[in-house]
TrEMBL record:
Keyword Transmembrane helix among record annotations: yes
CDD domains, per the entry: SNc
Superkingdom classification of source: Bacteria
Protein's UniProt name: TNase-like domain-containing protein
Transmembrane regions: 7-28
Origin organism lineage: Bacteria, Candidatus Zambryskiibacteriota
Transmembrane helix among keywords: yes
Length: 274
């Protein structure tokens, strides 16, 4: 009788242990199909060069040219392409230094080198271009919109790439004022004089620069007499894509895109135009 009771106690204990083991196995079954690292660790998110906050200040470490600068962003260098501004070319090895390019670059270096600036993005323009340059407006510590300042001083052109941008109206107005006041590259013969020193043997002059500068609409010619000696047009100067394409090809196409109309280098310009 004593042995029978002992066997009963042992059996009951085994049943309890089996029951507890079943419960533990059931509770753990929810994660049984997950890899071990997902159970024991949390997912790590690595953020490379986070986008700037509108109120933060960033130090300018390099001025590439009048419309491109490099800043120190969270300990890393980030190159910025200024929205709405296109200055004459100075650093493209495929092109000669364009009229007023050096002046624009020198002024940008004078104002920005070593200074702290505020960066503003534009949701309508995207974050980066194809060269991984951050697209943004640059503001000085006193609140001056540097992009607009360069246009106001005649050191660059208003530039619309496909879609309208936040300050487009202000920048276009600034360009018209610079032209009417003949500032910088809009001054009488500013670019013609520079060109004449390089091409003294030529007998035929390009399309009259002064005539283009004083035209209120700044529309390119449609009869084939395009300005191809310096950056004079952007996509907003054309009514249709065909007009822009004609000017692009007349000035040399992909081998001489002096106006910067073919930003993605596919041979088709101003693709947003009808």
């Amino acid at each position: 009788m004593f042995v029978s009771k002992k066997i009963i106690y042992i059996s009951a204990g085994a049943i309890v242990l089996l029951f507890i083991s079943s419960i533990i196995s059931f509770l753990g079954s929810g994660n049984s199909n997950l890899p071990l690292e997902q159970i024991t660790t949390t997912e790590e998110v690595v953020e490379i060069n986070p986008l700037p906050q509108s109120g933060d200040l960033y130090k300018v470490v390099k001025v590439v040219d009048g419309d491109t600068v490099t800043i120190n962003m969270n300990g890393k260098s980030q190159t910025i392409r200024l929205i709405g501004l296109n200055t004459p070319e100075t650093v493209d090895p495929r092109k000669p230094v364009e009229c007023f390019g050096k002046e624009a670059s020198d002024k940008a270096k004078e104002i920005l080198t070593g200074k702290e600036v505020r960066i503003e993005k534009d949701p309508g323009q995207g974050d980066y271009d194809k060269y991984n340059r951050l697209l943004a407006y640059v503001f000085l510590e006193d609140g001056t919109n540097f992009n607009k300042y360069m246009i106001e001083q005649g050191l660059g052109y208003e530039y619309t790439y496909n879609l309208p941008y936040k300050y487009q109206k202000e920048f276009k107005t600034a360009q018209e004022q610079a032209k009417s006041q003949k500032r910088g590259l809009w001054a009488d013969n500013a670019c013609k004089i520079e060109q004449s020193t390089k091409t003294t043997t030529t007998t035929s002059a390009p399309a009259p620069i002064q005539q283009f500068q004083t035209t209120t609409e700044s529309k390119p010619a449609t009869n084939g007499n395009y300005i191809c000696s310096y950056n004079a047009y952007n996509c907003s100067n054309f009514s249709t894509q065909n007009e822009a394409q004609a000017a692009f090809e007349a000035c040399g196409g992909v081998n001489n895109d002096i106006h910067g109309l073919d930003r993605d280098k596919d041979g088709v310009v101003c693709e947003s135009l009808p």
